[in-house]
């Protein structure tokens, strides 16, 4: 099957495709890892081709458990705070504590991820998570938990994510190599976002049956499973990432790199709107379950399940993507925003459930395409810092959006807040698409060489 290697030209500056970059090379002259684009849609048997690799298969199983239980715990502590305080705004504060550290320390975490072995970092971060979750679970199940203890655990999880998120993103390449990276990124991103939708559904059921403490305990167990899985991998089959040497200005270097590349910059800008306004669905569903439809924890789990079904369909669709284009990213983001806005005005539960399924589907399409094009457009020597900025936008946006949407829900009503949370990213997608159409004309140049077709993408005019 043929592969297209992409050379990106931005305002006349070219980035040539090679496979290795030494720390001594200047990033202005360093090569950008090629973006593999499948010329024809893969066969169904190749939809999950990267799972044929032993280490990645182990990793996927552990991450499916970890992500699902991690999101279940986040929802459990959100619901726990709501039970203890009765305040939607304080639920938003809990979200901010979980994601806020990434907003302020994200680039630093990227530097750490670029400097140290990724597997060792992940073992450390998951061990810390496991201990923190176990302590909070014991306090909750025993009935002595107070709000500040929940806030403290949320803050610890947020600080751990500063290093864990970029290290986990880059570690994928070490397991599968460059040839299957695109497929693995789609699967990995699908697991993350699918967990974000399945986890709340499971958590809602557990909360209704046995209480929030057991959802928290499950995440502690999941962290232990991840540690065992990482330690049991076949190290001889791993492809260690390039390690950046210590030098001054590495955070600024990463920021300049992101700003200079349209295939990284524009998806991250769009992601900022989606994360801040559209990715606080758990906070909004808590309010819908309690204030709008009066369905309680059981209804909350049902709503999350509907979104999870849509996400599953989106996950399958994303693994069969043939190309990564800015226009498809903006289209998916716009559709996601419209689906969120439509759910805010849904008159009955049945329509609300359909809208939630559409939210899950379009969110997965946007998220997997955005992460794939950002990571595969990044030089491997700086990929940790790039993905740290990406994670900073995802988690930091939710840290800002959690309290914001909670406040809007209390001040204007949950339906109005839901409509606003969808319309802002929808309008942003339209504006960015218009800017790209007016200022960036893409011209493709093909040169046939055996089964490889190098393409140069030339962006004319100023994009940033």
TrEMBL record:
<feature type="transmembrane region" description="Helical">
    <location>
        <begin position="300"/>
        <end position="317"/>
    </location>
</feature>
<feature type="transmembrane region" description="Helical">
    <location>
        <begin position="121"/>
        <end position="139"/>
    </location>
</feature>
<dbReference type="GO" id="GO:0005886">
    <property type="term" value="C:plasma membrane"/>
</dbReference>
<protein>
    <submittedName>
        <fullName>MFS transporter</fullName>
    </submittedName>
</protein>
<feature type="transmembrane region" description="Helical">
    <location>
        <begin position="264"/>
        <end position="288"/>
    </location>
</feature>
<keyword id="KW-0813">Transport</keyword>
<feature type="transmembrane region" description="Helical">
    <location>
        <begin position="184"/>
        <end position="214"/>
    </location>
</feature>
<dbReference type="InterPro" id="IPR010290">
    <property type="entry name" value="TM_effector"/>
</dbReference>
<feature type="transmembrane region" description="Helical">
    <location>
        <begin position="348"/>
        <end position="366"/>
    </location>
</feature>
<dbReference type="GO" id="GO:0022857">
    <property type="term" value="F:transmembrane transporter activity"/>
</dbReference>
<dbReference type="InterPro" id="IPR020846">
    <property type="entry name" value="MFS_dom"/>
</dbReference>
<feature type="transmembrane region" description="Helical">
    <location>
        <begin position="88"/>
        <end position="109"/>
    </location>
</feature>
<keyword id="KW-0472">Membrane</keyword>
<feature type="transmembrane region" description="Helical">
    <location>
        <begin position="414"/>
        <end position="437"/>
    </location>
</feature>
<dbReference type="InterPro" id="IPR036259">
    <property type="entry name" value="MFS_trans_sf"/>
</dbReference>
<keyword id="KW-1003">Cell membrane</keyword>
<feature type="transmembrane region" description="Helical">
    <location>
        <begin position="324"/>
        <end position="342"/>
    </location>
</feature>
<dbReference type="Pfam" id="PF05977">
    <property type="entry name" value="MFS_3"/>
</dbReference>
<keyword id="KW-0812">Transmembrane</keyword>
<feature type="transmembrane region" description="Helical">
    <location>
        <begin position="220"/>
        <end position="243"/>
    </location>
</feature>
<feature type="domain" description="Major facilitator superfamily (MFS) profile">
    <location>
        <begin position="55"/>
        <end position="440"/>
    </location>
</feature>
<keyword id="KW-1133">Transmembrane helix</keyword>
<feature type="transmembrane region" description="Helical">
    <location>
        <begin position="387"/>
        <end position="408"/>
    </location>
</feature>
